[in-house]
Structures are given as structure tokens and as C-alpha cells.
Amino acid sequence: MKSGRASAAETKGSINLRMDGVTRQLIDDAAAVQGKTRTEFMVESARRQAIDVLLDQRLFALEPERYDAFMAALDNPPVPGPRLKALLGRVPAWQK
Asked: Average pLDDT in the 48-67 region?
């Protein structure tokens, strides 16, 4: 049984945006070409971009041989060399 309260994913809300007139007109023109309202166009565009950004951080595809090599590299990282040790021993610029 579903409770009387809607979850955050089910509720609707609004987002107020400030933008210059040229950008607003560009969005309106693009929405009109697709037969959509400004809101429909902006929500679909933002949703598509958000999915792409998140997938870029989480998903990549490799052929089986390359996947095996990738997993082997993760399981057996190389021994740090002198240049990496020197780099890791430096004080970061933001701490100077």
C-alpha cells in the first residue's frame, strides 16, 4: 500500500533561472522547432545532459581482452618509481 506522501522522486518543483534575452530567445526558438514548450525543452535538455555527465563518470565499455588487461592493471599496480615518489613527497601548492 502506498502512503499518502509522495517521495522526492514523485514530487514536482520549480527552478527559477536568470538568463540574458539572447539565450532565452535561442532556447525558445529551439523549443519551437521541436514543437515543445520552453519548459519541456529545458527539462529534456538538462535531463539528457545530466545523464551523460553521470554516465561519463560511471560507465565505459571495453572489449573482453582490454577489460582483462584493465582489471589486471588494477589488481597489480606498478611499483612507484622515483619520479612518482618525488611528486608525492612535494608540498601541494595550496599548502604553501
From this structure: 90
Q: DSSP readout, the chain?
A: ---SSPPTTT----------HHHHHHHHHHHHHTT--HHHHHHHHHHHHHHHHHHHHH-----HHHHHHHHHHHHSPPPP-HHHHHHHHSPPGGG-
For the entire predicted model, the pTM comes to 0.55
Dihedral over alpha carbons 8, 12, 18, 19 (to 10 degrees): 110
- C-alpha cell read off for 31: 523549443
Q: Which sequence spans correspond to the domains of the chain?
A: 21-88
